[in-house]
Amino acid sequence: MAKESKSKSGFQSAAGLIRYFDSEDEKALKINPLAVLGMAAVTIFVVELLKYVYPV
């Protein structure tokens, strides 16, 4: 009997995760992945430039 409830609880929690990740909020902020990569590249460039201008 205990084995039965274990397998059922695993399936129910997995179904909850699927339901959670399937729902998308239309009001959520959506950022283009290329914009994120571009911001990361610019940040790295600025940090490296500052290390060159202000050496430690």
Provide a descriptive summary of the structure in words.
The chain has 56 residues and is an all-alpha fold. The protein has one domain. It is 75% helix and 0% strand. It has 2 helices and no strands. The radius of gyration is 23 Å and the shape is elongated. The N and C termini lie far apart (66 Å). About 9% of the residues have low confidence.
Features:
mainly alpha; 56 residues; 2 helices
How many strands in all? 0
Summing up helix and strand content along with how strands pair, one would put the structural category as mainly alpha
Largest sheet: none
Mean pLDDT level = 76
Taken together, the total number of domains comes to 1
Query: Helix and strand string, N-terminal first?
Result: HH
Proportion in β-strands: under 5%
Q: What does the secondary structure layout of this molecule look like, with pairings?
A:
Elements: H1 2-22, H2 33-53
In short:
This protein is mainly α and 56 residues long. It has 2 helices and no strands.
